[in-house]
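Lesson 9: reading folded outputs for more than one chain in a single document. The general rule is that every protein is listed as its sequence immediately followed by its structure tokens, and records are never interleaved. Here is the first one.
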Amino acid sequence: VQLQASGGGLVQAGDSLTLSCAASGQRLSMYVIGWFRQAPGKEREFLGSTMWSAGSPYYADSAKDRFTISRDRAKNTVYLKMNSLKSEDTAVYYCAAKWRTTSEYNLWGPGTLVTVSS
């Protein structure tokens, strides 16, 4: 499975932004897609995940109020919609994949930078 996150850019505080994670490869239905971010000088942070085939997304506590994960299986794309962006949301955002039965995300795509100006 290969992943490519896109949609980052420079936005104003309070804006909304939707990131895309395009996936390619076989047996996508067997994977879980997760969204992460890493801010300058900070550790990588898990935001949420969704199974490719079914079920509702799961969110980290830090993301559940303003972030929404959705998927479009026809386009092989998972989205991360972010609302009411704050300067502290400035980070490189990544999507990653793991096999449904494993705990570690081992497939990563290049990140996309989101910069929120206040």
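And here is the second record, again sequence then tokens.
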Amino acid sequence: QVQLVESGGGLVQPGGSLRLSCAASGSIFRFNTMGWYRQAPGKQRELVASITGGGSPNYADFVKGRFTISRDNAKNTVYLQMNSLKPEDTAVYYCNGIKWSGSWGQGTQVTVSS
């Protein structure tokens, strides 16, 4: 059973925007803090942003002021609005639960390049 499905990535120029979506199974999503992670080539996966079940967000310093995480509890979906994208944001983006997690999905590729 597929538990996490990310979408919305693509190729964008520096300064551009993308909105990522992650559809999660209820067993992972419900009441859980959800996180967006990313992994660039040759680097470890890192946490980008998280949001509690009640909707309180938290951001890594390197995306503060540029990215916004949100969730729709009725749809078991978490979003990541990414603005003012930089080349260093290029990575595969994943979502997963933080308090409890599932198998990693395929992720969605974000490439920021002119």
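What the second record shows: The helical segments are 26-29.
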